[in-house]
């Protein structure tokens, strides 16, 4: 299942808790209405997800989605975080999953659970496994649970921001563990486009940097990055433009530095990629920056 573009996510936390339960606690065979993230702090738990089995030890996580039949139980006394969420949610308030959980039978466990992937600019589709480890999650999870329990003003905004931080930590962990060889092989082209975004790179030039025929280079590039070299170049220019806008650089200077011959063409491309004009983006960004 393709979740979508990382920057386009609008996650909502439906439930968040930290709990310690006794050994042999069994929640039965369930089918939930949203996604569940289960992180073990201490102890050990076991997950049967469809026909697949996972042991969850301290610092390890499991993730599964709606209609994925599963059975979760503890092996010994276990301290854990449980988070129910949606990747995309229009609702501004959490929608508790409890009354929508269904209990199934052994026949439901025969179905393979869906796999998930996110589109990461510059890296293409990144698979999020059902069982993994990711550094730095525990402090964020603790803050997430506090926000959920206390419901202070603006807590839904904080919940969404914290969940995005969790998702980003997971993605970065996946990228560190899996670096396809072909990405390293197109590394010189990526570096060239990042360091000289103002240059109108020809595919043949980029291919030569990597030692490939242009047709073969374009094929590998699209497979690994998820975009054509031209699309990636546009994305890199817009990314650098965003940083410059938030730093306060003049729009005319940014456009010229990034190789645009017309400020109007720059504004057109920027809005086409972001949905905002450069001025609107700067204003929106300035209002959200922490003055510290």
Automatic annotation (TrEMBL):
Domain HTH araC/xylS-type: 187-284
Pfam families per the UniProt record, alphabetical: HTH_18
SUPFAM superfamilies assigned: Homeodomain-like, Regulatory protein AraC
Protein name: AraC-like DNA-binding protein
InterPro entries found in the cross-reference section: AraC_XylS_family_regulators, Homeodomain-like_sf, HTH-like, HTH_AraC, HTH_AraC-typ_CS, RmlC-like_jellyroll, Tscrpt_reg_AraC-type_HTH
Segments traversing the membrane: none
Keywords assigned by UniProt, alphabetized: Activator, DNA-binding, Transcription, Transcription regulation
């Amino acid at each position: 299942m393709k979740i979508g573009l990382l920057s386009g996510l609008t996650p909502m936390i439906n439930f968040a808790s930290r709990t310690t339960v006794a050994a042999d606690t069994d929640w039965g065979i369930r089918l939930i209405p949203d996604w569940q993230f289960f992180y073990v702090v201490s102890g050990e738990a076991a997950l049967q997800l469809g026909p697949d089995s996972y042991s969850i030890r301290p610092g390890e996580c499991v993730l599964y989605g709606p209609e994925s039949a599963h059975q979760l139980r503890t092996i010994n006394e276990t301290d854990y975080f449980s988070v129910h969420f949606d990747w995309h949610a229009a609702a501004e308030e959490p929608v508790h999953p409890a009354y929508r959980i269904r209990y199934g039978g052994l026949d439901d466990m025969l179905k393979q659970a869906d796999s998930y992937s996110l589109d990461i600019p510059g890296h293409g589709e990144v698979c999020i496994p059902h069982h993994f480890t990711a550094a730095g999650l525990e402090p964020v999870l603790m803050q997430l649970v506090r926000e959920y329990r206390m419901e202070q003003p603006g807590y839904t905004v904080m919940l969404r921001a914290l969940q995005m931080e969790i998702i980003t930590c997971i993605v970065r962990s996946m990228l560190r563990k899996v670096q396809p060889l072909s990405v390293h092989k197109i590394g010189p082209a990526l570096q060239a486009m990042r360091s000289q975004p103002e240059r109108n790179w020809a595919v043949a030039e980029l291919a030569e940097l990597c030692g490939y025929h242009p047709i073969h280079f374009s094929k590998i590039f699209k497979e690994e990055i998820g975009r054509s070299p031209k699309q990636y170049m546009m994305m890199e220019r817009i990314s650098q433009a965003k940083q410059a806008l938030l730093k306060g650089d003049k729009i005319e200077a940014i456009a010229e530095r990034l190789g645009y011959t017309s400020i109007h063409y720059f504004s057109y491309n920027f809005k086409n990629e972001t949905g905002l004009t450069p001025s609107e983006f700067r204003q929106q960004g300035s209002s959200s920056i922490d003055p510290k």
